[in-house]
């Protein structure tokens, strides 16, 4: 019978998710040599290697890719068991979670908050709303325990540079925070169903010549929107920036104003009979919904929330189609 140590599974899954030994070690709150040692012991026990390591990338071997989902499920079950035992021992707890109003359009975000409160009745869940950049500051200063965040990651250096130069960082989070990947949604167009472009299975950049597209200001999150602005300008399209108070409900803005919008997927998974979503050829960034926390935080109530989120999350998913009309 083969017996696997939990810390070896965590080392393997952490490296696979982060694609980096350094980031995985930081997230797991251990040294990089200790992480490498755990992986080496695990590979020796298995009898095969899990990663191909080059100077530029950390890539799963075929065996590693096949083993990863099993390891993720085993850790999720272990964390749930541990959380349940801790709940029996501790009896209660408090978790302070920050979330921006626009993330309320993510069905999974609402499900995590609602179902966790229903199942873990002995844990008090306090939800604080605000701008995501302010919530990240509250997280890192210890004012709150976790943040449900919609956006993309960047390096700590880039994040700090944008703050120092007063550039907006609302949709960016530093990649050295601990995170549970909940969902990835590819950026797509929402188009009124009676528009000519709605009849196309996908939209090529050339089809956007002379077309007006409404979108959040690219300064909010350049990795998501900046490339589309350049694409639109190159083909002679027009960008219309949406007021911030409308940016969280782009499906409603599309329907109400009869204008094509660019969406990162922040809308409830509900039937849309009068608007469709369409992929833009050559443009495929994804917006992430993640649960962020401080690396190494072992607070029992928080660990219960993280374990619960892992059971609902889509760790390892590389992209999700949204809307309707496409397979």
Could you explain the architecture of this structure?
- This protein has 327 residues and is an alpha/beta fold.
- It folds into three domains: 6-74, Winged helix-like DNA-binding domain superfamily/Winged helix DNA-binding domain (Arc Repressor Mutant, subunit A, Orthogonal Bundle), CATH 1.10.10; 92-183 and 287-312, D-Maltodextrin-Binding Protein, domain 2; 186-286, Periplasmic binding protein-like II (D-Maltodextrin-Binding Protein, domain 2, 3-Layer(aba) Sandwich), CATH 3.40.190.10.
- 40% of the residues lie in helices and 21% in strands.
- It has ten helices and 13 strands.
- Strands 3, 4, 5, 6, 7 and 13 form a six-stranded mixed β-sheet that branches.
- Strand 1 and strand 2 (58-60) form a beta hairpin.
- Helix 1 packs across helix 2.
- The protein is globular.
- 37% of the residues are buried.
- Mean pLDDT is 82; it is low at 315-327.
- It comes from Sphingomonas immobilis.
- Pfam families: HTH_1, LysR_substrate.
- Residues 4-61 form the HTH lysR-type domain.
- InterPro entries: LysR_HTH_N, LysR_subst-bd, WH-like_DNA-bd_sf, WH_DNA-bd_sf.
- Belongs to the LysR transcriptional regulatory family.
Low-confidence stretches: 315-327
Tally of helical runs:
10
Rg result: 21 Å
Dominant shape: globular
Oligomer: single chain
What's the total number of strands?
13
Number of domains: 3
Structural class: alpha/beta
**Average pLDDT rating:** 82
CA distance, first residue to last residue: 43 Å
Largest sheet: 6 strands, mixed
> CATH homologous superfamily of the largest domain, by name?
Periplasmic binding protein-like II
CATH architecture of the largest domain: 3-Layer(aba) Sandwich
Strand percentage, roughly? 15-25%
Helices and strands, in N-to-C order?
HHHEEHEHEHEHEEEEHEHEEEH
CATH class of the largest domain: Alpha Beta
Name the helicity range.
25-40%
Q: Provide the CATH topology of the largest domain.
A: D-Maltodextrin-Binding Protein, domain 2
């Amino acid at each position: 019978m083969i017996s696997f140590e939990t810390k070896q599974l965590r080392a393997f899954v952490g490296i696979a998710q982060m694609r980096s030994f350094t980031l995985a070690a930081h997230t797991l709150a251990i040294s990089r040599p200790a992480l490498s040692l755990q992986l080496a012991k695990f590979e020796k026990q298995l009898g095969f290697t899990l990663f191909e390591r080059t100077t530029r990338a950390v890539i799963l071997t075929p065996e590693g890719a096949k083993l990863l989902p099993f390891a993720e499920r085993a850790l999720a079950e272990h964390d749930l068991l541990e959380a349940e035992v801790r709940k029996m021992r501790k009896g209660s707890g408090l978790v302070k979670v920050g979330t921006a109003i626009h993330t309320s359009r993510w069905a999974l975000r609402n499900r995590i908050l609602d179902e966790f409160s229903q199942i873990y009745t002995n844990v008090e869940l306090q939800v604080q709303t605000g701008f995501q950049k302010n919530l990240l500051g509250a997280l890192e200063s210890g004012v709150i325990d976790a943040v449900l965040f919609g956006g993309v990651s960047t390096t700590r250096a880039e994040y700090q540079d944008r703050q120092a130069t007063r550039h907006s960082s609302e949709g960016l989070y530093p990649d050295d925070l601990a995170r549970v990947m909940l969902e990835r949604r590819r950026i797509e167009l929402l188009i009124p169903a009676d528009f000519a472009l709605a009849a196309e299975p996908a939209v090529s950049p050339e089809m956007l010549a002379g077309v007006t597209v409404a979108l959040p200001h690219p300064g909010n999150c350049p990795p998501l929107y900046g490339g589309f602005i350049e694409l639109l300008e190159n083909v002679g399209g027009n960008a219309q920036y949406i007021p911030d108070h409308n940016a969280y409900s782009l499906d409603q803005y599309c329907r109400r104003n009869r204008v094509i919008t660019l969406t990162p997927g922040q809308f409830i998974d509900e039937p849309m009979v009068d608007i469709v979503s369409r992929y833009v050829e050559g443009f495929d960034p994804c917006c992430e919904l993640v649960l962020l926390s401080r690396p190494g935080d072992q607070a029992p109530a928080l660990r219960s929330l993280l374990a619960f989120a892992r059971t609902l999350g889509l760790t390892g998913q590389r992209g999700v189609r949204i809307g309707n009309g496409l397979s």
